[in-house]
Design goal:
Number of domains: 2
Radius of gyration: 21 Å
Strand order of the largest sheet: 1-3-2
Shape: elongated
Order of helices and strands: EHEEHEHHHHHEHHHHHHH
Strand content: 5-15%
Oligomer: single chain
Number of strands: 5
Distance between the termini: 41 Å
CATH topology of the largest domain: Alpha-Beta Plaits
CATH architecture of the largest domain: 2-Layer Sandwich
CATH class of the largest domain: Alpha Beta
Largest sheet: 3 strands, antiparallel
Structural class: mainly alpha
């Protein structure tokens, strides 16, 4: 989620303001029962990556932003709205997108030229992933995608984030694609209700079933998909395999040992399915899987 200052004005005047905002995030996290995966406070906007199992996100943001606006206006003798009336929110229910979003958020200060490395920026949750940090940030799920051993997970996480430095501003994580819906809450609910699930299998297919469908549609064997081949057809089938796996709700960490690639590679491969041809191929594979699971 991205929350911006009204007319792009600064929303933090000093460190006390940033602490005041984080105090409200922590307070309503406990009160509303949401999960906080990552955050970064920039001068005129905030990124929050949260999961809301109990309360609508609109209510949570209303509580945080309203009480912080009261603090800001009282302190600086201002009146009126501090934040834009609308904010960007999106659904993220895939592990590959989750780790990518965490990296995207934590690299914001680097892309903005504020710091050279993310660990130099105080006002993000990046430090929580590198050490025990605070209890307000829920790092367990993301770190577990890298390794079950916490020390190894932090090492791999740091490597994954550092690989993104210098890569530019990758806005793909905030695009409207099949796996993400961008807009406010009403927009998400409205569009989400319209998603056509007719081609989705009635049950979650196994790895063997997915591999068989990918082989049939692409003409590339499982052996070629799992090999080190860089042939165009093999790379494309590999990306389709990752995209279908993710689309059907499987965890990327479970596909890693099968394809023998790390999460950052799987994340890049999955983008092959965002093209028109990629989406068309995925639909064909989903129809094949639908036939398998109903046979």
């Amino acid at each position: 989620m991205i929350v911006r200052g009204n007319q792009r004005q600064d929303i933090f005047g000093d460190e006390e303001d940033r602490l005041a905002y984080l105090e409200r995030v922590e307070r309503y996290k406990e009160k509303c029962g949401f999960v906080l995966y990552a955050y970064v406070l920039m001068s005129n906007h905030v990124h929050l990556l949260i999961e809301t199992p109990k309360m609508p996100i609109s209510k949570i943001m209303q509580l945080i932003n309203l009480t912080y606006t009261q603090h800001f206006n009282k302190k600086y003798g201002k009146v009126g709205h501090l934040f834009q009336g609308r904010y960007k929110s999106f659904l993220c229910d895939r592990d590959a997108y989750l780790v990518g979003l965490v990296r995207y958020i934590h690299l914001n200060p680097v892309r903005a030229g504020v710091v050279a490395r993310p660990e130099e920026y105080r006002w993000s949750s990046h430090g929580d992933y590198l050490s025990d940090g605070t209890k307000s940030v829920d790092t367990e799920r993301v770190l577990s995608l890298f390794s079950e051993r916490i020390s190894e997970a932090r090492k791999l996480y740091r490597k994954f984030v550092n690989e993104g430095i210098g890569a530019g501003s990758d806005e793909s994580y905030y695009k409207t694609v099949a796996q993400q819906i961008v807009g406010d809450d009403k927009f998400i609910e409205k569009i989400g209700a319209r998603i056509d699930r007719a081609e989705r299998p009635l049950r979650k297919p196994s790895l063997q079933e997915i591999a068989k469908a990918v082989e049939k549609v692409t003409g590339v064997t499982w052996e070629e998909i799992t090999s080190r081949s860089r042939a165009v057809a093999a790379v494309y089938a590999r990306g389709v395999m990752v995209g279908v796996w993710r689309e059907l709700g499987h965890r990327m960490v479970d596909l890693q040992p099968k394809l023998r690639r790390d999460l950052s590679v799987l994340s890049r491969l999955s983008r092959l399915t965002e093209s028109q041809d990629g989406r068309k191929t995925m639909r064909r594979i989903l129809r094949e899987l639908n036939a398998f699971t109903q046979a």
